[in-house]
Design goal:
Rossmann fold; four-stranded parallel beta sheet; alpha/beta; 4 helices; 4 strands
Length: about 120
Amino acid sequence: MKFLLLIAHGSRRQGANDEIRQLGERVASLDANDYDGVVTAFLELAEPDIQQGIAKCVELGAQSIVAMPYFLASGNHVIKDIPGEIACAMAGKPPVDIEISQYLGSSDLMASLVLDCSRQIG
């Protein structure tokens, strides 16, 4: 079974974290969804953290995980922190393969999405 681990920054504001969880649920419900499950996790300030998110995927039966950084730019969190957390998880030898996908902001669809969002006034 293949799972998507959607990794966001995390916020002190609970509503922001809930938005990420709701996004994960919407992704899971899409007909074009290629995953057997979608789990959300946070780098900091919220739970589950990345380690807990990986554990949840494994608990749900994941044999492979695609970890997707839900970040707009390739800052330290994308380049160092998230890969470091994944490496720590792999050092514990979980019974699962983990790959890190491109971060959200690197998508070729981002420019069109920016235009679409800018047209939604009010």
